[in-house]
Amino acid sequence: MRWMVSVLTGLVCVALTAASMAEPQRRHVLFIAVDDLRPELGCYGAAHIHSPNIDRLAAEEVRFDRAYTPMAICMSARVGLMSGYGPLTGRMYNRGPMSEHVPDALSMNQHFMNQGYETVTIGKIYHHASDEATGWTRNFRSIEGGWGQRGYVEEASLAVEIPRAEQGLKGPPFESADVGDDGYPTGAFAQRAIEELRGIGDKPLFLALGFRKPHLPFNAPQKYWDLYDPEEIELSVYPSEPINAPSEATSRWGELRTYAGIPTEGPVNEEMARQLIHGYYACISYVDAQIGRVLDEVDRLGLRDEIVVVLWSDHGWKLGDYDMWCKYTNYEIDMRIPLIFRSPGMAAAGRTTDALVDLQDLYPTLCALAGIETPGHVEGESLVPLLDDAEAEWRRAVYGIWARRSADKERGFIGYTMRTERYRYTEWRRTHGDALLSRELYDHVAGPLVSENVVDAPEHAAMMSELAVMLRGGHGKDWALE
Question: Given 28, 50, 74, 101, which residue is catalytic?
């Protein structure tokens, strides 16, 4: 009898051990999105920016110095990331919701939910609210508080916002109320995330935390404005369009022009430019402080060794660079993004990598780190090899687009762009047909901002042919897009 009990006990132990090996404990995921954040942070070499919490995260883990968005606009970048498809699939460059362009896509959050995760969204993950409707256990896209529709809290701002909203316009482009961190939605989002972390149960948690700042309007508590001396705010070192830049490459920066006090055409004056930059910086520091609150709670709860953290932005942003504001171009300043990964057991922790990566890579990377299968349709590539070895050999280029829509199909155009280790090469073509309108080549050996399109320089002629072949092959699509 004792022999039988011993055998049975052994079989049970073997079975339990096999089950635990087949189904390892799933890691939690903290998925932090920061809207309109260009990599102007202390950890990216911007000593004038107060971002101690993001800097701390970057110092401990893996920072990607050459991470890019496939399209410099919230709608398409986010739909692409969450669906696993590039911006040409389903014509996502037309900027509609996921349900319109790739209705059969298995979204990242739905996939994690199907794999047994609690999926929680806070703030802005998708651009379109309709895309948030499914795939979430709990949805906190908006949190009620003492603020207006766009996050204004001062009566003067609301007094401007309300009548302008009836005309499809907005209130002031910035606000600096003397309130605490939770006095604006950004702080409330962080607090909600903290509460979700405290409530982790038996299921693994996929927590998507989407901060809407530093997106316009630049609203942040006064104490974050006070971190910067207005007299020391510097304007862009490249306030004019690049020499020889084609007209297709420019942006009308219409988003900013819908705010009160901004001219409907022409440049903003120097005083307003400094105020806008000041507001953008204040919002970065405000978001940084909220990220710090959430990361501190992760540590306080003892979750550091159980949770994957990724911090990303959907695209960059121009602060008067090239005489433009906002995003909406294929320039490096709009396409380059901050990206930081932290995962238990990473061999490359505390390192940086120059590997060329993009937002499409996040879906398969998180699947791999969570120990779940990556859906077959996902176009990106897992970054896990780079998390283990920051110097690992990687791809030669990343690709993106910008599209200018037009009711007249003969006038619409798309810029197909490619970033290699040193160059950004772009071809502008008609949306309908294969007509080449113009080309651009920028040598980024000196940094992200350059002053001249060198596409016609004789010394680059031989290389241009190679880049053109790479561009077409990398996009993997016909140029003619109906």
Answer: 74
Nearest to 27 by CA among 443, 368, 474: 368
Is residue 74 part of the annotated active site? The answer reads: yes
- Those residues whose C-beta lies under 8 Å from the C-beta of residue 115, and which sit 6 or more positions away, are 26, 370, 372
Quote the Cα angle for 254-34-277, to 5°. Answer: 50
User: Does residue 338 have a cis peptide bond before it, meaning omega lies within 30 degrees of 0?
Assistant: no
Query: How far is CA 99 from each of CA 86, 105, 130, rounded to the nearest angstrom?
Result: 15, 8, 8
Contact 61, 341 (CB under 8 A): yes
13 given a catalytic annotation = no
Strand partners of residue 309: 30, 342
Question: Which residues lie below 8 Å from residue 300, measured CB to CB, with a gap of 6+?
Answer: none
CB-CB contact of 108 with 310 (8 Å):
no
Task: Note the pLDDT tens digit of each residue in 102-118.
Answer: 888 999 999 999 999 99
Closest alpha carbon to 474 in 393, 414, 404, 401: 401
Report d(CA 312, CA 92) in Å as an integer.
20
**pLDDT tens digits for range 376-404:** 999 999 999 999 999 999 999 999 999 98
In whole angstroms, what is the distance from residue 240 CA to residue 64 CA? 29
- Continuous H helices in 312-430: 332-335, 362-370, 384-388
Do residues 220 and 227 make contact, with C-beta atoms less than 8 angstroms apart?
no
Catalytic residue among 50, 101, 127, 215: 127
Q: How far apart (Å, rounded) are the C-alpha atoms in residues 474 and 14?
A: 49
Average pLDDT score over the chain: 92
Its pTM stands at 0.93
| Residue 245 to residue 248: CA distance in whole angstroms | 8
